[in-house]
Design a protein that fits this description.
single chain; alpha/beta; Rossmann fold; 3 domains; 14 helices; about 25% strand
Length: about 500
C-alpha cells in the first residue's frame, strides 16, 4: 500500500475581518499518496489557493489537521516551519512576480535556492541552465525580470521552485498567463521533472488541461472536496460524500433536472432519487448583444503607425500599424514573449518606442515628455495590469474612491459606486478586497479603471487567473462596457473566450 504523503482532515480556514467572518475552507478532507501528482480544480473563490497556503505553512488552519510527511504543519514553530519550507517544499505562487528579485538575472533566480543550501556555484548554475532550457528560456537566462514578459517570468518562477528537487511541489495556477502552446510545454516539463524525482505534487488550477499530467483530479467547491476521479479511470466523476452525509451535486445536473432552491430525496430501488420541489428552474441563454458592424463610427481613438520596439539586440516588433476605434473591444494576441504587455505600455505612454508614432485623440504620445504623458493618462487613459494593484485592506468602493481622488475627480458618491454596480459588484462594494474572490478582484480593477471615464481602456490578461465561468463573464463585460461607454477597450490576451467577444484582433508573432 502506498504511503500517505499529505493528509488534511476536517480542515476549516476562517478569515476574520471587521465586516464579519468568511470561511475559505469548510471541513475539507484530502489525502495525497507519496509521489502522486494531484490536480485540484475549482472556480474562483472555492478555496484552492487557501489549500495550498496551508500546505506551504503560509497560513494556519482555524480547525482540523494538516500533515505533510509526518509534520503537523499547522502547529510547527516558526524555526521548524522555515526549515520545512526551505528543504522539503517547492512552492510556485500565482503571484509569481513577488518571488523574483528585480536585480537578479533569470539564471541567478533559478540558482538562488541552491546557493542558500551551499551547493557549489558550477553545479547550481548548471542546474539553472538545464531548467531554463527545458522551458525555452536558455537564450534569455541573463535577462532580469523587467526584461521578460509576464509568461516568461512565470516560467522562471516555476524553475526556481523546482531547482532544489523538493520532496513536495505546490503550484498555484502555474500556467495562468501562458498561451496554450507554451502552457502545454510547461505542463510537459513539470510532468517530466516531478516524476524524475518522485516528487509529491499538488497543482491548483482552473485550467482543465492541467489534469492531463495528473494521477488523480479532485474538484473543490464551497471549501470542500466535491468530486474526484482518476485521469485514466473508466469510472465517471465521483461525487465525494463528506462527514455527516454532506455532498454537492454539480450545477449542470441540477439545472437539467429543473432543481432550484429546494429538492426532495428518497430511496428507490437501491438508489437515492433527487427531484425538484416547488417551482422548477429552466436553463436560459445569456442575452448577448450583437456586435457592431465593421464600419467606423467617427475618428479612431488611437492611431499606431510604423511602431518599432527593441530590447537590446532583440526586436519585439517592427513596423506595426493599426487603429483603435471607439466603442469596440480590441484583442491583442500572440504567444508568451511576443510583446503584448510591451505594446500596452507603449499605448499608455509608460514606455517609448524606438521608432514610429502613437496618437491618442489627437495627442502624439511619442512627442510628449514624461509629465505630459502622465497628464494624458490622467485625462484619457486607464490601465489594468496583470497585477491589479488593489489595496487589500480597503473595500472595493474605497479602492475606486482612492483612484478618483488621485486623479483629482473627487473621492466618493455615485461616481465611485456606479462603476462597481456596472460590473455587478454593487452589493459587494463595502467588502474588503482581501475577502473577494479572484473573479471579483478582476472586476474591481476594471471598475476602478472605468471610474475615470477613459477614452482608451487597456487591460493586460484580465482573465488569466479566472475559471471559465468568470472568464466569459469578464470578457462579455469588457465588450459591453466598450459599447456602453464609447471607450476603445484594448485587451492583451491569449484567452479564446476574450478573443471570441472581441470586435477586432491585433496579432503579434
Amino acid at each position: 500500500m502506498t504511503a500517505t504523503a499529505i493528509e488534511l482532515r476536517d480542515v476549516f480556514r476562517v478569515h476574520s475581518t471587521p465586516e464579519g467572518d468568511a470561511a475559505a475552507l469548510q471541513g475539507l478532507s484530502l489525502r495525497v499518496a507519496d509521489g502522486e501528482v494531484l490536480t485540484v480544480l475549482g472556480p474562483s473563490g472555492s478555496g484552492k489557493s487557501t489549500l495550498l497556503r496551508l500546505l506551504a505553512g503560509l497560513d494556519r488552519p482555524s480547525a482540523g489537521l494538516v500533515r505533510v510527511y509526518g509534520e503537523d504543519v499547522g502547529k510547527l514553530p516558526s524555526r521548524r516551519l522555515a526549515r520545512y519550507r526551505s528543504t522539503l517544499l517547492g512552492y510556485a505562487d500565482q503571484h509569481y512576480a513577488r518571488a523574483l528579485a528585480p536585480e537578479l538575472s533569470a539564471r541567478q533566480l533559478v540558482a538562488l535556492q541552491l546557493g542558500l543550501r551551499g551547493v557549489p556555484s558550477a553545479r547550481r548554475l548548471a542546474r539553472a541552465d538545464e531548467l531554463l532550457e527545458r522551458v525555452g528560456l536558455a537564450a534569455k537566462r541573463e535577462r532580469r525580470p523587467s526584461e521578460l514578459s509576464g509568461g516568461e517570468q512565470q516560467r522562471v518562477a516555476l524553475c526556481a521552485a523546482l531547482a532544489h528537487r523538493p520532496k513536495v511541489f505546490l503550484a498555484d495556477e502555474p500556467t495562468g498567463e501562458l498561451d496554450a502552446v507554451t502552457a502545454g510545454q510547461v505542463y510537459a516539463m513539470l510532468n517530466e521533472l516531478v516524476r524524475e524525482h518522485g516528487c509529491t505534487t499538488v497543482i491548483v488550477s482552473h485550467d482543465p488541461e492541467s489534469a492531463g499530467i495528473a494521477d488523480r483530479i479532485v474538484r473543490i467547491r464551497d471549501g470542500r472536496v466535491s468530486e474526484e476521479w482518476a485521469r485514466d479511470g473508466e469510472q465517471s466523476d465521483t461525487i465525494v460524500v463528506g462527514r455527516g452525509g454532506w455532498l454537492r451535486l454539480p450545477e449542470e445536473l441540477l439545472l437539467r433536472a429543473g432543481i432550484g432552491a429546494k429538492a426532495t430525496a428518497r430511496f428507490d430501488a437501491g438508489a437515492v432519487l433527487v427531484e425538484p420541489a416547488g417551482e422548477p428552474v429552466t436553463a436560459t441563454e445569456p442575452d448577448l448583444r450583437s456586435k457592431p458592424d465593421s464600419s467606423s463610427s467617427g475618428p479612431p481613438t488611437a492611431v499606431v503607425s510604423g511602431l518599432t520596439k527593441r530590447f537590446g539586440q532583440t526586436t519585439v516588433f517592427g513596423d506595426l500599424s493599426f487603429e483603435l476605434h471607439p466603442g469596440r473591444l480590441h484583442a491583442v494576441t500572440g504567444p508568451s514573449g511576443s510583446g503584448k504587455t510591451t505594446l500596452l505600455h507603449l499605448l499608455a505612454g509608460l514606455d517609448l518606442p524606438d521608432g514610429g508614432s502613437i496618437e491618442v485623440e489627437g495627442s502624439e504620445v511619442t512627442a510628449l515628455d514624461r509629465t505630459a504623458r502622465a497628464a494624458l493618462r490622467r485625462a484619457k487613459i486607464a490601465y489594468v495590469g496583470q497585477q491589479s494593484g488593489l489595496v487589500a485592506h480597503l473595500s472595493a468602493l474605497e479602492n475606486v474612491e482612492l483612484v478618483l481622488a488621485l486623479r483629482g475627480s473627487g473621492g466618493g458618491g455615485p461616481a465611485a459606486f456606479a462603476p462597481l454596480d456596472a460590473v455587478g459588484l454593487g452589493e459587494r462594494a463595502t467588502q474588503r478586497v482581501a475577502r473577494l474572490s479572484q473573479g471579483e478582484r478582476a472586476r474591481v480593477a476594471i471598475a476602478r479603471a472605468l471610474a475615470a471615464k477613459p477614452r482608451l481602456l487597456l487591460a493586460d490578461e484580465p482573465t488569466s487567473r479566472l475559471d471559465g465561468a468568470n472568464a466569459i463573464s469578464v470578457a462579455i463585460l469588457l465588450a459591453r462596457l466598450a459599447r456602453e461607454t464609447g471607450a476603445a477597450v484594448v485587451c492583451a490576451t491569449h484567452d479564446p473566450l476574450v478573443i471570441e467577444q472581441a470586435d477586432s484582433r491585433i496579432s503579434l508573432s
